[in-house]
Amino acid sequence: MTHSADDTAAASRGTALAGGVSSPVRSGAAVGGAPFVQVAGRGAYAYDRNGRAYVDYVMAYGPLLFGHAHPALVRGLDELAAHGTVFGSTCAAELRLAQRIAAHVPSMQALRFVSTGTEAMMSAVRVARAYTRRPLIVRFAGNYHGHFDAALEQAGASAPTQGDAGGGIPPSGRAEVVVARYNDLADLDAKVGGRGAQLAAIALEPMPANMGLVSPAPGFIDGVFARARAAGALVIFDEVITWLRVGLGGEQGRRGYSPDLTALGKIAGGGLPLAAFGGRADVMAVLAPGGFTFTGGTFSGNPLCVGLAHRVLDLLESDCRLYARLEARARELAAGIRAVFARRGMPYAVTQYASMVDFAFRPGAPARNDAERSQSNRAAFAAYYHAMRERGVLLAPSPNELMFLSSEHGDREIEFTLTALDATFEELQQRRLV
Length: 434
Ligand SMILES: Cc1ncc(COP(=O)(O)O)c(C=O)c1O
Fold this sequence. Notes:
Oligomer: single chain
Strand order of the largest sheet: 4-10-9-8-7-5-6
Number of domains: 2
Bound molecules: pyridoxal-5'-phosphate
CATH superfamily of the largest domain: Type I PLP-dependent aspartate aminotransferase-like (Major domain)
Strand content: 15-25%
Number of strands: 14
Radius of gyration: 21 Å
């Protein structure tokens, strides 16, 4: 753990910035040592204050499908801004953006813009409760939906998943939330018990990416729909990570699902904060002004973020081969890691979906839920994180996160990463950590 003295100094100076970070995962508490302090990002690379470049697999936790500062996204930003950055009135561009999104995600017959995934999911939950006039929400342990009260118990990502993560959340904030085990319909049934008539919605990540990458078991999501339908409840898909990561139609487009409500964000704003929630027109009709349910937002649908979102869609709609290229690259990386594991006799499974790649220091088959994921060797992960960083590869400093690739990760970066991995595992094996 011999990162630059500057980084250490920056971390210890973090007194005005609470805890030295604006979001806890960035502190690197899960891996120890000095947090990574970044001064710039270009393409697939993050730069520290010494100008050292790192192949970046954090990609801002998902938004940077085109890497950092992609010219087609950042060029002429000043021109866009010159027309105004926030209006406080509806802007024409947001009306068009809503139509473009709905064309790709037909289940979003009506949608509304917000700034973050947290707001999108919080609003979707409120809409579901308002529409059904029922209180109860079911979520799954290890899924992450943001940091609002109802979302944090046993949340994934880098929210603490064990014990009491609920400082500041009153008991009423959790009272109407049931947390079930992902990929386990029997547990879902048991947790809902006799409360089906109170159930407003079941919320889930359709391809969970916050407890590592977990594949839904065959029949699991169909089972979720069946139970929601039988109870007269709604299904909310959290596609904050997956929309535009797995395709223009999101995970629902890939798998042919039609959830009642969807939340999206991350990639949508092209690196600026833009998110949305939406779904069936009759459900979204509960929203004020026509309906009796309030959501708002000073910056919601502002022309700057909306302008970038149009650029993202322009890029994706004009390059129909992009997703295939991204996926091929991710497959190449996953295959390379598997080959290193095989050569070194390391019993870990590597998973890949679209442009996401993941493994955990946990022998055997890939985890099916957060309980299994949490069995991974945290000391090995911490050592791996730091050794990779020393070698110029930046990973998310948490064993619940995965590797996000961008259009800018090419052969050179994959090769560099695999060389660093091999040397890192050599070191970890010598230290008997893996
Ligand atoms: C699936 C999912 N939903 C919601 C959120 C919350 O989004 P935000 O951080 O923009 O509030 C995240 C953030 O990581 C996420 O991964």
